[in-house]
Amino acid sequence: MTPARRLVQIGLPKLAAWLLLAFLFVPILVVIPVSLTDRDYLSLPHDGISLSHYAALVDWRTGWLSSMATSLGIALATSVVATAVAAAYAIGAWAYVGRWPSLLRVVLLSPLIVPPIIYAVGMVKLWSRFGLLDSWIGVTIVHVMLAMPLAVLAIGASLSNFDPRMVQAARSLGARPPTIIFGVILPNLGPGVAAGAILAFITSWDEITVTLFITGRRIVTLPRRIWTSIADSVDPALAAIASALLLATLLALLIRLLVSERWASPTRRNPKDTAKGTPS
C-alpha cells in the first residue's frame, strides 16, 4: 500500500473522527475555566483563579449540597425499586409467555412513547388528588415509572441469552421456585440487572420535566436547582457543578475501563504458555 493510499484510507477517517470528537467535547470543556472565574457572573478568569464557586457547592446554606443529597436519595431509591420491579416482570414474562405479559409490556414501556410534558400534566392532576405533590414518595414513584422501561429493556435483553435448560435441570433436581429464581436465574442476569440499575439511577438523576410540575419548595432536586438558578440569576456555580459532574463521569469511565481490563487479564494467556501446556 502506497503512503498516499494509506493516508486516504486510514489517516483521513481518523482525522475526521478526532475532529468530530473535538466538535462535541471542546464546548463542554469550556465550563472548566469558567468555573474558576473570580467574578460573580459567567466569564473567564480575569485577575486570577478562584475556587469560591466550588466552595459554594459544599456550603449547605447555598442549597447546592442539599439538592445533590435530595437527587442522590431519590435516584438510589428509584434504582432499587425500578430494578426489582423490572426484574420481577422480566422473569415472569419470560416464564409465562402470553397475551397479558405482552400487554403489560406495552404499559411499562409507555413512558418512552408519551411526551414528557403530557405525562407531567397527567401526573399533576393525579397526584393532586392523592396529596402527593411536592413529596418524596410522589417524586420517587414518578421517577420509578420513568426509569422502569429502560430497566425492563436491559434485563429483558439479558434474559434473551439465558438458557432455559438450566431451569429445567434445576426443576429435575427438585429445586423450588424461589431457589430457581434467586439461585439460578438472577445470578446469570448480573450484567442486565446492573445495567438496569445504572440506567434507572441516571434517568432519575437527570429528570427535570415532570419534576418541575410535581415539586415546589419542599423537594428541590439538582436539575430543578440548576433550572431555577438559570431562570433567576446565572450563577458561576453552574459551571462548577457542571465541571464536577464532568469529572465524576470521567472517573466512572476510567474505573470501568480499569475493572474491565482487570477482569479480562486473567483470561488472557500467553500463546507461548499455551503452547507449552499443550501435550505433544
Question: How does this model look, in words?
Answer:
Residues 68-259 form the ABC transmembrane type-1 domain. Belongs to the binding-protein-dependent transport system permease family. It is a single chain. By secondary structure, this protein is mostly helical. The protein has a domain at 70-217: Orthogonal Bundle (MetI-like fold). 74% of the residues lie in helices and 0% in strands. The protein is built from 14 helices and no strands. Helix 4 packs across helix 12 (222-232) and helix 8 (165-172) runs antiparallel to helix 9. The longest helix is centred in the first third of the chain and has 32 residues, at 64-95. It starts with a helix and ends with a helix. The mean pLDDT is 84.
In helices, the fraction of residues equals over 70%
How does the overall form come out from the CA principal axes?
Answer: globular
Q: Unreliable stretches, pLDDT < 50, 5 or more residues? A: none
SSE sequence, one letter per element = HHHHHHHHHHHHHH
Reported by name, the CATH topology of the domain at 70-217 is MetI-like fold
Q: Note the main sheet.
A: none
> According to CATH, what is the class of the domain at 70-217?
Mainly Alpha
| End-to-end separation | 40 Å
Count the beta strands.
Answer: 0
CATH homologous superfamily of the domain at 70-217 - what is it?
MetI-like
Gyration radius, to the nearest Å? 25 Å
Structural class given helices, strands, pairing?
mainly alpha
What integer is the average pLDDT?
84
Q: What proportion of the residues form beta strands (DSSP E)? A: under 5%
Give the CATH architecture of the domain at 70-217.
Orthogonal Bundle
Total helices: the number is 14
